[in-house]
């Protein structure tokens, strides 16, 4: 999502969006099978630096974006720490059973969530949706009818938010009482969904009337290619990963290499 | 209009726009989820099922093969683009959850649209999310009583939200009449014309 915040364009913004997505997906899968907490901690530090220095946003916004991730870290780590299985007991208090193993596993999960969050945040802060979908069509051969539907959908978000406000005001004016969460979701969802469906139908008809078709040979307004920034991105990611592994073997923080 | 195999532009566009509405819900559900999490004992798992709802609602509205998968992917992409707290993982979760929901609908050859099938799809998505959690969250390493509670809460929540609630939501939408724009004409419609 592009926020109306002034930001500096960095090399991360100029990287090819498809390449960026694929590389980040690979790191994601790598982290899913990574069980060494030392490597993971290094990796999250590396990504944190990348996020902090090269996304090009002002410091206060970076901190603001980062706040929820801290909550995620704590909440992800807590249930494994408190209720996980293990042999070396630290604290036992009622149902709570903290062991050395469960604590380490909990911390590992926290860092893992942090890594995923950082990958996602770096991507969404440095990628314009329009370029992403144009690049997906050109490099990864995504069918135009999917890509343009997405783009049209993204453009509808502000209208939806406006409608959300309208519904909110309408409910207030009519003195709608308090209700349960699901009832509330329904009150908002029915008008928002029905209007969206009508709008989507109209857009589809308009697109077809203007001869939008599924031809494979088509021209693009934005031509997205590759540049030296892509190499830079690729090497910096490989560098971060290799450094993480190297530092973990040379200067391990904890003498545990597998948290399972 | 020529009849093409697969989804037409109008179907895709409608599915994606519906999914983006749910993408916003998914995004807002995140803070709500970690707000209830500190209450402990996996209360949060009861509301986890909201993240499966795009697939079931979109399928109930459009009733075509492939819609459930597309909807779940689109909703998670929407959540991702808006900057989800979980970052990249929502994309992969979305794909897996969508696949399992789609499988449930496919098992009935896309011809049944009642609460039962929708609940089955919700259960399918739950299984999908659990497979991901198994790799990501080491859930098998939780104490057995705790794991049982975790699983129970997630399944119950999924059936209630993405099964029962989703079909009541679509019933309410049917009352507005918009679903008739998107569904292809059924046999009953033609019989009505003959009368």
From TrEMBL, chain A:
Spans traversing the lipid bilayer: 21-54, 60-83, 109-134, 231-254
Organism encoding this protein: Anoxybacteroides tepidamans
Membrane topology classification: Multi-pass membrane protein
Alphabetized InterPro entries for the sequence: ABC/ECF_trnsptr_transmembrane, ECF_transporter_component
Keyword check for Membrane: yes
Name this polypeptide is given: Energy-coupling factor transport system permease protein
Pfam families: CbiQ
Subcellular localization: Membrane
One GO CC annotation: plasma membrane
Keywords attached to this entry: Cell membrane, Membrane, Transmembrane, Transmembrane helix
Domain of life: Bacteria
Automatic annotation (TrEMBL), chain B:
Segments traversing the membrane: 12-34, 46-62, 115-135, 147-173
Keyword Membrane (UniProt): yes
Pfam families on file: ABC_cobalt (PF09819)
Keywords assigned: Membrane, Transmembrane, Transmembrane helix
Protein name stated in the entry: Energy-coupling factor transport system substrate-specific component
